[in-house]
Amino acid sequence: MFYRSARRRFESWLNACEAAGVSVKRVRRWMPEKVIQPILERQVDGLDLHKTWREDKSLFRGACLHFGGWRNAMRVAGFEPIKAERWSKQRIIGRLRAWGERSGETDLGTSDQALSSAACRFFGSHDAAFEAAGIESPARRWTKERVVATIQDRFIAGEASDRIGFGDEKLASAAYRHFGSWPAAVEAAGLIDKVTFKPQLRRWNQQRVIAEIRAWHDSGHRLAEVSRKYQALFHAARTHFGTWNKAIIAADLEPERRFYTKAEILDMIRQRHEAGESLSSGHPDVRNLAMLTVRHFGTWRKGLAAAGVVQFGRKKVAS
To answer: Which domain of life is it from (predicted)?
Structure first.
């Protein structure tokens, strides 16, 4: 009754509040023409129209209410929306590698926000995405200055200087990339008369691959890191043994990453079902199995069906 009396005597509740000296935030009431004008004003002010959902939620909701969506409202205002990209892990990895080859870009979030968001969404973090793409993060990226400083530091530390890159494959690769050769990088570091080395031609065979794998493992390195940190060995292993895991097995070592067959995946699903354990793809104990299933069968449901487990709502019964 009080509210209706206020509106009757002051024409609106806001007018009654102002007459009483009470400050009340006015709620914008959107109409189609009132939606278009703020969009045009944002564009004139140099604001990113695709960030409106975060910077002006009221305008974004008004556009969705009157035009069925923000993209439709942009078209009515005379702007063509950017076509949204459909991301996948493979596409992100390809884009990251191309981004890594471009010089002068050190912040992924600033240079390509869409790629940055997709990398975090699919891999959890930038560093994890960089590792999956086999490239160094900007914070650890090699530059000419870093190559020169590393050569000088390694020499002062007394490391064996008769090996290219002091035995460091990443340093050697960076030296070749920036200076064309290891001697040229050593000369740039001012140590051409002090660092001696014996150029070695890497002639790989099965015996040498096995010896290098064992030496890498005995030095405390992870076998899963070879593809990123010792690419020459990784490629030689695949050349002489067909796959990296076969080369590891030939060296009498256990692969860190096991590759499951479809039959093994189906057996794991059936074992969980027979034990009465959860078969929800979101369950912490099922996530890895779910990812393997999706990789081999396309979807989790198809994998369950192939295993003979039929879903009824949340219940699973063996068919």
So the answer is: Bacteria
Give the distance between the most distant pair of CA atoms in the chain.
98
Q: What is the spatial distance between Cα 149 and Cα 192, in angstroms, rounded to a whole number?
A: 14
Place of tokens 């890159």: 165
First to last CA, the chain: 64
Residue type, 246: K
Place of tokens 């009470």: 22
238 token code pair = 């695949």
E-state strands within the chain: 309-312, 315-318
- DSSP state, 251? T
Cβ neighbors of 88 (< 8 A, separation 6 or more) are 122
Q: How far apart are CA 132 and CA 313, in angstroms?
A: 36
SS3 102: coil
Three-state secondary-structure class, residue 79: coil
